[in-house]
Structures are given as C-alpha cells and as structure tokens.
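SUBJECT: A protein chain and its fold
Encoding: whole-number codes for local backbone shapes
RECORD BEGINS BELOW THIS LINE
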Amino acid sequence: MMNEMWKMKKSLLYAIAIVAVVLLSMNIASADEKKTITPQEFASNVAEVPGKLVNFIGSEVEKTKAYQTKVWAEAKTKWPWTMLKGKNNASQD
C-alpha cells in the first residue's frame, strides 16, 4: 500500500515538474515583443539580400586571401622548405 502511494506521489510530482517546465518555456518564448512586418518592409528586405550576399562573400574572400598569404609566408620559413632551399633555420635546431 505504502509503495503504491509513493509511486503515485512520485509520478504526480514528475508530471507537475514537466508541466511547470513547459509553461515556463512557453512564457519565455512569448516574452519577445511581437513585431509585425509590412509588405513594403518585407519587399525591401528581400531586395537587399543579393547586395548583402555579394558583400559578405567578397569580405570572406578577402579574409581568406589575407589568411592564406600569412600562412604561406610563415610556412616558407619552416623546415621542409628551408631544407630544400639549403637555408638554415635557427628555430628548428
């Protein structure tokens, strides 16, 4: 009898905890201010996408080129290249 009561209490507490978590999650999710977007704002945002995409890709290409230039400059001073070119590298001694 006592065991059944404990199981029922445990189940009830578990269900209450689940409901509380769900309600809290819903409350937090709906805490944002509801912003409506007009058709003109939507059209303007859609029209800006290609320009933003081109700018993003261009900046990423420039960052990649700068990084590759730096890394290759560093790599040319390290062991395999110096050995092939016949230079001594003090950092590898």
DSSP finds three helices and no strands in the chain.
